Amino acid sequence: MLTKDLAICLRTVDYSETSQIVTLFTKSNGKIDAIAKGSKRPKSAFDGPLEVFSFGRIIFSDSNKEKLVTLTEFEQQPTFTRFCNDLFVLNCASFATELLTHLTNEHDPHPDLFESFLQFLQNLQDTKDNSEVLALLILFQLTLLNEAGLKPILNACVNCKTNFNTNWLQVYFSSSANGLICRDCEHAFPDRIKLTKPIINTLADLKKIADTDENTLFGIEKVLIHHFTETLGRRPKLAKYIIKN
Ligand SMILES: [Zn+2]
Description:
Shape: elongated
Largest sheet: 5 strands, mixed, barrel
Helix content: 25-40%
Number of strands: 9
Bound molecules: zinc ion
Structural class: alpha+beta
Strand order of the largest sheet: 1-2-3-5-4
């Protein structure tokens, strides 16, 4: 059976002189592994070799219900050019791709997440500075957690359910509790990390993220990387290109 879909390429591996095996995030079929026979030939049905972030309409055949589907067409849209000339933008896009790959399952469709990822890659093309890039990355990561069923609680103490307000003298984040912890409950959560005022003010009201300074955004990203490390059971490989420690 031939299936039409939209896809963003997450990973490519050379299979032979002329073919590639690719991991695609599709809109209607979720993440799939596919073989693209002849994709590296000068003339093919793939508009040239596939690369990470290649995006466009695809046709694939999965008649054998094998794990690896056969890609028969990839009508590539113009590439995201910004990734070639801005290393931080490329690193953030690659990091988001790594997280997406680990937090989604094969053949498990997430059409809204597909749209968010595509929009994230498109928005990165127009960013003016690192703050804007980081803000987009943070918002995408929160969307990803949400879609993976892991939405953190950022407006109340997870333990006693007291709503957060800006008068709280100390606020913590616990990865095991998946959200904020207040001062009265902090002793029960040994993995808690303390959040600074600017970090919690932005996390509790994400509309403020566009006006948040770069330092605070890096602070939020550090909390998220800690959280993804705990969630995945290991530090994401590309985290070192976002936050140096
Ligand atoms: Zn509490």
